[in-house]
Write a structure and sequence with these properties.
Elements: E1 8-17, E2 20-30, E3 33-38, E4 48-56, E5 58-63, H1 81-91, H2 97-113, E6 116-123, H3 131-143, E7 146-153, H4 176-183, E8 192-198, H5 206-219, E9 223-227, H6 231-241, H7 245-251, E10 259-263, H8 269-277, E11 281-284, H9 286-291, H10 299-305, E12 309-311, H11 321-336, H12 344-351, H13 353-359, E13 374-377, H14 389-395, E14 401-406, E15 409-412
Parallel strand pairs: 1-4, 5-6, 6-7, 7-8, 8-9, 9-10, 10-11, 11-12
Antiparallel strand pairs: 1-2, 2-3, 4-13, 13-14, 14-15
Length: 414
């Protein structure tokens, strides 16, 4: 088990330091916390040298670890999101605590090698109560990545109230009160936070949504939910509730700056204004959304309305938050027909401090008082260009990550 309270000195050749690129940066860490960041100084004796470009650790806000097992297996035969969903349900079966711990370790290890220092696991595999959630916690602790376990309430098959069928029944606690009783048994600790998730408006009724949100808000815990990923969800909500999913959440007082909405693709102009007015954080997962044919959401409009952005790897067919940041921008360029919709600074904020806030961690910035989580890329052939933020976002990938520190302890590199 990795303890996340290390100490030491690191000297970065180049670094992203709170809004600007700096050179020869000394990062001093004590007990897992950044104590000082000093620019334009030589490396002192004993400092770990970081050639390349150093930046705050990346936050993977939305992950389903088990879905990585579908990687490369769903790319033939055509079909839509709902066909993929049936295959995903099959992949959700057959896990026990030892097998899921081992599997999740490999997924989290890949995340660390991609510069990800915190992951939000949107977890609804409840067949064995808390066993598989605790397996995820065990795996994260063993690998040395921070985890926010977002335990999802999942109660019904649709807005018409139809019961769960097949494997879906293993996702459910039966009612929100039993969900509360089970989640109350989960324990936070070093590198571990427990958050709440409303799976979706399809899967959770109005009174139960209020119960989950109240649980999270009493504890000041992260609150997440899937929102308007598919047109069918919106159409069903309008048919049975007479409003859009975003309007339903507004009527139940679920919207707020402590809520992270995953996807928010099929939202109307009035939904955009509604989400933005409550400063609901939006988590985009572009590589998964591409894979599933989810279309491109109105992210520019959401940002302009007041919603901050963050990023996730979702199905984990790709584990690369730099690619998610790049895709967030480039997919919109093709959809809108314009360039530079979000600046590199906005994309970096989404990948780091914005995501860390969504997951409940005081991290994502290289400045005193923050958790000592950072990563370094050293891509080839950059000597004559120099390294900066735009190059990091648009020209680097997970394979360029050479060194990763979590809580003042090196977890990738030497």
């Amino acid at each position: 088990m990795t303890r996340m309270k290390g100490s030491g000195l690191w000297h970065a050749e180049h670094a992203w330091v709170v809004g600007h690129t700096a050179t020869n940066v000394l990062i001093e860490v004590a007990d897992g916390i950044i104590k000082a960041v000093t620019e334009d100084v030589p490396a002192p004796d004993g400092a770990v040298r970081l050639p390349g470009f150093t930046f705050p650790g990346l936050a993977n806000v939305h992950s389903h670890a088990f879905q990585e097992s579908l990687r490369g297996r769903t790319e033939s035969g055509g079909g839509d999101f709902w066909e993929w969903r049936r295959m995903m349900f099959d992949a959700a079966q057959g896990w026990d605590r030892p097998s899921y711990t081992d599997y999740a370790r490999s997924v989290f290890r890949e995340m660390l090698h991609a510069g990800i220092t915190a992951v939000g696991e949107f977890h609804y595999l409840h067949r064995y109560g808390n066993e598989l959630g605790e397996a995820l916690i065990d795996a994260a602790r063993a690998e040395g990545i921070r985890i926010t376990l977002l335990d999802a309430c999942y109660l019904r098959g649709g807005l018409d109230g139809r019961p769960l069928e097949g494997v879906q029944r293993s996702f459910s606690d039966g009612d929100a009160e039993r969900w509360v009783a089970r989640v109350d048994e989960l324990r936070e600790g070093d590198g571990v936070r427990i958050g709440a998730a409303i799976h979706s408006v399809r899967a959770v009724d109005r009174p139960s949504m209020r119960v989950v949100a109240a649980w999270a808000r009493r504890r000041k815990a992260p609150l997440h939910m899937h929102l308007a990923e598919q047109p069918a969800e919106v159409d069903e909500c309008i048919a049975f509730e007479g409003c859009t999913p975003a309007e339903l959440l507004e009527s139940e007082e679920i919207l707020g700056p402590d809520l992270t909405a995953i996807h928010a693709i099929h939202v109307s102009e009035s939904d955009v204004e509604l989400l933005g007015s409550h400063h609901v954080r939006i988590c985009a997962s572009p590589t998964t959304e591409r894979d599933l044919g989810d279309r491109v959401g109105p992210l520019r409009g959401l940002v302009e309305a007041g919603s901050p952005l963050c990023l996730g790897s979702d199905s984990n067919s790709v584990i690369d938050i730099l690619e998610e940041a790049r895709a967030l921008e480039l997919d919109q360029r093709r959809a809108i027909g314009k360039r530079v919709i979000h600046s590199p600074e906005v994309l970096m904020d989404a990948a780091t401090v914005g995501g860390m806030r969504s997951l409940g961690w005081d991290a994502g910035e290289l400045k005193p008082g923050k958790l000592a989580d950072f990563a370094t890329v050293a891509p080839p052939r950059t000597e004559w260009r120099g390294l900066g933020l735009a190059y990091l976002i648009f020209c680097c990938s997970a394979r360029d990550v050479k060194h990763v520190v979590v809580g003042g302890r090196t977890v990738v590199g030497h």
